[in-house]
Every structure is written in C-alpha cells, then in structure tokens.
Known about the structure:
This protein has helices at residues 74-78, 81-117, 125-158, 163-167, 184-189; strands at residues 2-4, 10-15, 34-39, 42-45, 60-65, 171-173, 181-183. It is α+β, with helices and mostly antiparallel strands and 192 residues long. It is elongated.
Amino acid sequence: HFKAEGEVEFKSILYLPSQAPFNQFDNYYNTKAALKLYVRKVLITDEFEDLVPKYLNFIKGVVDSDDLPLNVSRETLQQHKILKVMGKKIIRKILELLRKLSEAEQARKKKLESEDQDEDDDEDDDEDNENDSEEKKAMDYEKFWKGFGKHIKLGVIEDQANRNKLVKLLRFTTTKSETEIQSLDNYIERMP
C-alpha cells in the first residue's frame, strides 16, 4: 500500500495475485482492470479501466482520492486530468514493486554463484535469516514470471512510455540452463 502526495493526493492498496487465472487471455481486450475507485471513501466504480493499462489488468486493488470531485458522472470523471496523473503514479509503483522482486532474484543468483566458487561456513544466523527472505522474494519473482510473464511481454509491445522499465523485467530460458530463467542483462554479461 502507498500514499501519493504532491499535486495529487490519494491512497492505494495494490495486490499482486500469487497465481494467474486459467483464462487470463480469453478476453484480454475486454477484461477490465480490477481496481476500485473511491472518492472520499465513496465507491465510484468497481472496474475503472483508465488507471492502469491492459497488460496490468491482473493487479487488484483500491484507490481512494480526496482530490476528485464527488458529484460528477463517471464519463466526465474518465476525462479528468487528475486521473491521468494518478494512473502514472500507480503504474510507476507497480513497476517499482516488480523491479524490486526482480533485483532480489538477481542478487540471490549472484550470491549462489559466488558461494559455489568459495565455500565459507563462517556466516551468522542473522545473515541466514536475511538470506531466507531474499530467497523468498526471488522465488516469488520466478513464480510471478511463470504466471504473468506474458503480461509483461505485452506491456513491452503496448506501452511505449514504460518500455525500458519493462525490458528489465523480462526473463528468458537459455541454452546454458533451460530450467533457470535469466534476465536480458545477465544474458548479455555472459556473452563472449
């Protein structure tokens, strides 16, 4: 959850599902975002499409703003400038969350590679606990990628503004290890 302040103030709780629905691409262009929009704790709409693009329609959540007018129709509200700013901030937060999960995965892989090269058994229990949480985040991203990787790939195609951020989230299987997924940056680093 987060609270955005600045020219627009709103509170939001976003949820990243742990599993992808089995029919997620049956009606991709007709599926509506699962974000609920509230204005001053009054529900305005259940499925508001303009806050996040189609490729992020698997994100569930609630957005509450005090800056939006309460007494306008939904059609007028869709054209409101404040919603565009809110949408950009929400997309930025979602991509930041995914980037953090991705970085935790990369850090875990690098650490495992360095541990394989030199075996040190002099680590503290506190470090092991921190490593367990990092490993959990890394596993979370791998699980996320298996379920929602196609969404990120569609985002690279559809979203020109956030393409560079989305490319860093992409994962691929390689001939070196077909069971592990690799980021594009890691793949390029290993090239001769």
